[in-house]
Design a protein that fits this description.
The complex is a heterodimer of chains A (about 90) and B (about 140). Helix content of chain A is about 65%, strand content about 0%. With about 90 residues, chain A is an all-alpha fold. Chain A starts with 9 loop residues before the first helix and ends with a helix. The mean pLDDT of chain A is about 95. In chain B, a hairpin with a 2-residue loop joins strand 3 and strand 4. The chains are: A mainly alpha (about 90), B mainly beta (about 140).
């Protein structure tokens, strides 16, 4: 399977695959920081119009952020759990 | 940009200068006597945390730029106060969006962020940006 994110930077992935509306849906989904992510894991739901493409793009950005050791407080790791759970639900 | 929401603008000088604005002109504007132009990188160029003290007051913002922007550092701490006593557990937003980079002709850099809902600490120095004054006069 072709990895559509392979040759793109994080900024290019954000620009190409996450629209303004999808950014807002992702913010609603994640909440703020660790507390927001834990709250969503406890009371899980996926915003209606959050798309598979936006979730997969965010997952790639989060994975690279973690790989670069920039996830200081573990927020991106928690968001990855949320994204994986959401993708199972909407696929 | 979104309505009914304030924006924080931070000039990357030493020390950084902070402004709050109700609205930001689209692609070019004047601020602090400097003309800035949108870098064209979009409004999701990294993640940011608001730096809070133990009383939930804002002291500054921490920016984690994506590699695209070619910053020398992967983490940029911008304080609006000499007080640096942040509470890390309250400074973990990892917010994104409404985050643009503007550049001036002499390479001054300015970042925009969605303003935090909390108040800044009294020790912070924050300017108010007036939209009408930011508009460029076209001859």
């Amino acid at each position: 399977m072709i990895d559509r994110f392979a040759n793109l930077t994080r900024g290019e992935i954000a620009r190409k695959f996450i629209s303004r509306r999808q950014k807002e849906r992702l913010e609603e989904f994640f909440g703020r920081g660790v507390a927001g992510a834990n709250n969503r894991l406890a009371k899980f739901y996926v915003p209606n119009d959050l798309t598979q493409t936006a979730l997969e793009a965010y997952r790639e950005i989060a994975r690279r952020t973690i790989a670069e050791k920039l996830d200081k407080n573990g927020v991106q790791a928690l968001r990855l759990q949320l994204v994986e759970k959401a993708l199972v639900r909407i696929k | 940009m979104m309505k009914n929401q304030k924006y924080l603008l931070v000039e990357l000088s030493e020390p950084p200068r902070f402004w709050l604005a109700d609205e930001i002109p689209d692609s070019r504007f004047l601020l602090g006597g400097i003309e800035y132009k949108d870098s064209g990188s979009g409004d999701f160029i990294g993640f940011y945390d608001y730096l809070r003290n133990s009383a939930d007051e804002i002291l500054g913002v921490r920016f984690f730029p994506f590699e695209d922007e070619n910053f020398a550092e992967q983490e940029i701490n911008l304080f609006a106060s000499k007080d640096r006593a942040i509470d890390e557990n309250k400074s973990d937003d990892q917010q994104f969006g409404d985050n643009k980079l503007y550049k001036s002709r002499n390479d001054s850099l300015l970042l925009t962020f969605l303003a935090p809902p909390e108040k800044f600490a009294p020790s912070c120095r924050i300017f108010q940006a007036d939209f009408a004054e930011m508009l460029l006069k076209v001859a």
